[in-house]
Amino acid sequence: MKRLVSAANFLFMLLVVLFVAIPCRRPDNAVETPLLWLVGGIQIFYLLNLVSRKEPQKAETVGDVTAIGYAVLLAWELTTARYNLVDPMLYPTPSAVLQLFVKDRADLAKGLLSSLQLLAGGYAAALIAAIPLALVIGWRKRLFRAVSPVTKVLGPIPPIVYIPYAIAILPTFKMSSIFIIFVGAFWPIFINTLNGVFTVDRKIIDSARVLNVPEGTMLFRVILPATMPAIISGANIGLVLSFILLTAAEMIGATSGLGWYVKYFSDFADYSRVIVGIIFIGLVVTVITFVMDKLEKRLLRWRS
Predict the structure, then answer these.
(1) Residue 140 has pLDDT above 50, yes or no
(2) How many domains does the chain have?
(3) Residue 304 within a domain
(4) Once rounded to an integer, what is the mean pLDDT over residues 252-265?
(5) Of 28, 93, 127, 142, which cross-links 80 as Cys (Cβ 3.0–4.6 Å)?
(6) How far apart are CA 56 and CA 45, in angstroms?
(7) How far apart are CA 302 and CA 296, in angstroms?
C-alpha cells in the first residue's frame, strides 16, 4: 500500500511542478489554472478517501486508480502541450479539453437528458417484459421446451443490426431508439432470469409445494427472490449493452443526445469536442455502473 501511496503522491507533485514551475506557451491559448485545480481536487478526494477507508485492499485500489489517472494525464500533457509530439488537431491538450467541458456544459447536459430519457424508456420496458416472462417460461417445462429453440435463434443476433430497419419503419427516432434499447436489454435479462430459475434450490420449491402455495405466490414470493442474483447480473449486462446501442443509434439518426454530439462534431473535424464527448460518455457510464453496484448490494444484502 505504501508503494501505491508514494506513486500517487509522486505523480501529483510532478504534475504540480510541471504546471507551476515550468510554464509553456500553448498554441490553443488554453490556460492551465483550471487543469491545476482539477488535479488538486483529485488529490484531495484521493487523500480523503484514503483516510476514510478502513479496508486496506480498497485503499490500495483507490491509490492505484489515482496513480494511473495521474500517469495518463502526465503523458497526455507532455505529448501535446509540452513537446508537440502529435498532431494538435487530432490530439488537443488537456487544458483545451477541460475548457470545452466548461464551455459546452449546457449542450452536454441537454444531450445527457435526451439520452437518459430514451435509455430509461427502453430499459424499463425490457425489465418489465423479460423478468415475468422468464419466470413463467422457466417454471413451465413444456412452455420452456417450446420457447427454447426460438431463444437460441433470436438471442445471439446482434441488436445493432436492427437500427437501420427500426429507424426506417417506425414513425419517430424516439420510438425506434426505445425499440432498439428494448431488444438489446431484453435478451440478457430474459436468458439470465431463465437460467436463474433452474438454479433455485429444489428443497425451497418442494417446501412451498408441501404448504400448497399458489402458483402466483410461488413465482413472485419464492422463485423471484431466489433468482435475484441472476436477474441483476443480466440487468447489468443489458444496461451496458443498451447504452452502447443508444449511442450507436444516436450517431446514425438523432438530432440530439451524447452519440449525436460526438458524431456532429466529428463531421466538422472538431476533434477537441469529440474527445470531450467520449470522456463525458465514459463518466456517465461510470456513474450508472456505480449506482447499479450500490443497488445490487442493497437488493442482495441478505447474501452478506
Answers:
(1) yes
(2) 2
(3) no
(4) 88
(5) 93
(6) 17
(7) 11
Let me know: does 53 contact 64? Beta carbons within 8 Å: no
CA 205 centroid distance within chain: 36
> From CA 42, how far away is CA 66, in angstroms rounded?
8
Share of the chain above pLDDT 70, in %: 85
Q: Which of 64, 93, 122 is the last residue before a domain boundary?
A: 93
Cα dihedral 249/252/255/258 (nearest 10): 50
- More confident position, 81 or 189: 189
Q: Which domain holds residue 46?
A: 2-93
The cell numbers describing 36, all together, are 491545476
User: Would you say 3 and 67 are in contact if contact means Cβ atoms under 8 Å apart?
Assistant: no
- Residue that wins the pLDDT comparison between 34 and 275: 275
Instruction: Indicate whether 122 and 181 sit together in one domain.
Output: yes
**The domain spanning residue 185 has which CATH number?**
1.10.3720.10
DSSP-assigned letters across all residues of 20-61: HTS----TT---SHHHHHHHHHHHHHHHHHHHH---HHHHHH
Distances (CA, A) of 238 to 127, 159, 241, 286: 9, 11, 5, 15
* Other CB atoms within 10 Å distance of the CB of residue 248: 17
Cell match 484531495: residue?
44
Q: Could you tell me the three cell numbers for 90? A: 487530432
Claim to verify: residue 70 and residue 130 sit in the same structural domain: no
29 dihedral zone (left: phi>0; alpha: psi -120 to 50; beta):
left
Name residue 50's amino acid: L
Confidence of residue 201 (pLDDT cuts 50, 70, 90): confident
The predicted model scores a pTM of 0.82
Q: How confident is the model at residue 2 (pLDDT cuts 50, 70, 90)?
A: very low
In this prediction, residue 295 carries a pLDDT of 87
Residues 259 and 148 in one domain: yes
Q: Say what the pLDDT of residue 54 is.
A: 62
- CA torsion, points 58, 284, 274, 73, in degrees to nearest 10? -20
Residue identified by cell 463518466 is 283
- Residue 271 predicted with pLDDT over 80: yes
